[in-house]
Design goal:
- It is globular and about 65 Å long.
- The longest helix is centred in the last third of the chain and has 17 residues, at 550-566.
- 35% of the residues lie in helices and 20% in strands.
- The chain has 4 domains: 14-207, 3-Layer(aba) Sandwich (Rossmann fold); 228-271 and 377-432, Elongation Factor Tu (Ef-tu), domain 3 (Beta Barrel); 275-370, NADPH-cytochrome p450 Reductase, Chain A, domain 3, CATH 1.20.990; 447-590, Rossmann fold, CATH 3.40.50.80.
- It has 591 residues and is an alpha/beta fold.
- The strands form 5 sheets. Strands 3, 4, 5, 6, 7 and 8 form a 6-stranded parallel β-sheet that branches.
- The protein starts with 13 loop residues before the first helix and ends with a strand.
Length: 591
């Protein structure tokens, strides 16, 4: 393959950007993983042939940063460098201090938090005991979402701390929003030649302690910009008719797509907006569906249906409406920069609600669409193993519905699937790998899973996977919801798995079936002695579900159990739990 020459001091032009974007999109089909030190190599190429070691370190929650790290490694290899790819938590400060060239790809989780596989690294890097990094030449590629506070905060913190510790900057940090591919490709093209020009090698390149557990899969042609149109073969309600929730089970036919997935991966679904909401917004704007708007390559109605996020208002829209609407409460909040008050004010409000704050407010369609963000896919934890569901992929989704501001509202994707994609119709899907959330490679290792509500999804997949593998390891599931009579989803399946020995223990917590509320963390503490014993036997601990409350409560319970039944101080219990994380035996899929 002929690779266009990119001078170190040249701007990254359109042709080079197009080449690199296409190159990164297709390169995985030619990559295999090997080498005792976990170095990713092109098939047939010896890693010893490359002189300059490039350490590509990533922190990821859903797999995007890891995917970019692998793309950087692939591109670096074509430029004669020897890439070493590792999760941030796999890197000690001693190893970091002797690295010559470092590129960090870091996503931001939640409201400005470090992703799970970067927290221990950040704790060490930000500590007073962190070593000086004068030998390190670095660059940071940060991923985030401007819809959240703390946009790209994880990358910004790492970037600043490297500089504070004396590391030399290879290239300016790039902060990427949700549409990151093109910007990231351009940044990679600019940063790699600079990294390759740094003289010298790592003082201890082969000491980087990580291993690649599996070969890289061929990169799918299906992605969020080009999803596979899949037939929804099953769309059925799981929760009872009297439940306060509507939880549904979906099965998507993979047909001849070539899509592959593993238990622990996520499925991206590309939705369409609610046509009723589109019509209401058009009416509010005084516009028509077939109106042509400058800057749009399709009629306004189609753009609002397919192209823009019209449910959750963007920050730009909130600011603009604040200026136009003359709404006293909103203006007061914006003037004072009160984040909590703004969150409370926006709670349950969508874009139409904002436009309705002042019926006299004038906002034309052209100005309106400039304030909208692109419509994004929604990612859901896959609830099937490909070993058990050949040719299909399953999801378990709660339909979001609520009444506010005098009208009904619905979740963009959950109600799209529930109401507007009938069984037998098609929806756009693609697979998002999550290599950091996997069934234990050791089939004999005990597995403890905590997944209330729809958090059971990946653990249904895990149990199917263990059953199909013939794994002998014990499996323990903590599941719960509000009421057993209506909210015990997959009850029959779990009963069968208990009967045939796949599910060794099943502890249930239905919070509203008694006066005192009982949650999964309650059951964990009640069975703390046995839980700690499973951990001591090499057990893997998994959590899936709500990050805001449940996952934090479960984490607190785990620390308490380790302290109590391990006879440890709070500090020592923290070290024990951190050890589980380092050993990849405490993994979370939280949202």
């Amino acid at each position: 393959m002929k690779i266009p020459y990119i001078p170190e001091d040249a701007p990254f032009n359109g042709d080079q950007r197009a080449w690199l974007s296409g190159f990164l999109a297709g390169l995985h089909s030619r990559i295999s993983i090997g080498g005792e030190s976990g170095i990713a190599v092109v098939a047939g190429q010896s890693p010893k042939a490359a002189a300059a070691v490039l350490n590509v370190l990533y922190g990821t929650q859903t797999g995007n940063a890891e995917g970019l790290a692998m793309d950087i490694a692939a591109a670096a290899r074509t430029q004669g460098m020897q890439p070493v790819v590792a999760a941030l938590d796999d890197i000690s400060m001693e190893n970091l201090a002797v690295m010559k060239r470092v590129i960090v790809v870091a996503s931001t989780y939640g409201e400005g938090e470090m992703p799970d596989n970067a927290q221990l690294f950040w704790d060490a890097l930000s500590a007073d005991t962190a070593p000086r990094l004068e030998a390190v030449n670095f660059a940071v590629l940060a991923l985030g979402d401007t819809g959240y506070d703390g946009f790209c905060q994880a990358g910004k913190l790492i970037d600043t701390r490297f500089e504070q510790l004396g590391a030399k900057r290879l290239h300016a940090r790039l902060d990427c929003d949700i549409d990151y591919e093109d910007a990231a490709a351009a940044w990679i093209g600019e940063a790699l030649p600079v990294a390759g020009a740094v003289d010298g090698g790592d003082a201890a390149a082969n000491a980087v302690p990580f291993a690649v557990a599996e070969p890289a899969r061929v990169k799918s042609t299906w992605n969020r910009k080009s999803p596979f149109s899949s037939v929804v073969s099953v769309n059925r309600r799981l929760s009872g008719i009297d439940s306060g929730k509507e939880i549904r089970h979906y099965e998507f036919d993979l047909g001849d797509s070539g899509l592959e997935y593993e238990a622990g991966d996520a499925l991206g679904v590309v939705p369409l907006n609610d046509p009723a909401l589109v019509d209401a917004i058009l009416q509010r704007l005084g516009a028509k569906a077939d109106d042509a708007v400058a800057g749009l390559d399709q009629p306004l109605g189609d753009a609002l249906l397919k192209q823009f996020e019209i449910s959750t208002p963007s920050r730009e829209l909130v600011q603009d409406v604040g200026k136009r609407a003359n709404h006293e409460e909103l203006n007061h909040i914006l003037r004072n920069g009160d984040k909590q008050a703004l969150d409370a004010f926006l709670w349950s409000k969508d874009t139409l609600d904002l436009l309705s704050l002042n019926s006299a407010m004038d906002l034309n369609a052209a100005d309106f669409v400039k304030l909208l963000k692109p419509l994004q896919h929604r990612a859901y934890s896959i609830s099937s193993s490909p070993l058990a569901a050949e040719g299909s992929v399953h999801l378990t989704i709660a339909s979001v519905r609520y009444h506010a501001q005098g009208r009904d509202h619905g979740g963009v994707c959950s109600t799209y699937l529930a109401d507007r994609v009938a069984q037998g119709e098609n929806a756009g899907i693609f697979v998002s790998q999550n290599k950091a959330f996997r069934v234990p490679a050791n089939n004999d290792a005990p597995m403890i899973m905590v997944g209330p509500g729809t958090g059971i999804a990946p653990f249904r997949a895990f149990l199917q996977e263990r059953q199909q593998r013939g794994a002998k390891g014990k499996n323990w599931l903590f599941f719960g919801d509000q009421h057993r009579a209506n909210d015990f989803i997959y009850e029959q399946e779990l009963g069968e798995m208990s009967s045939n020995g796949v599910l060794t223990r099943l502890d249930l917590a239905f919070s509203r079936d008694q006066a005192e509320k009982i949650y999964v963390q309650t059951r964990m503490k009640e069975n703390g002695k046995a839980l700690y014993a499973w951990l001591e036997e090499g057990g893997h601990f998994y959590v899936c579900g709500d990050a805001t409350r449940m996952a934090k409560d479960v984490d607190d319970a785990l620390h308490d159990i380790v302290a109590s039944h391990g006879g440890l101080s709070a500090e020592a219990a923290g070290d024990y739990v951190n050890g589980l994380k380092r050993e990849k035996r405490y993994l979370r899929d939280v949202y």
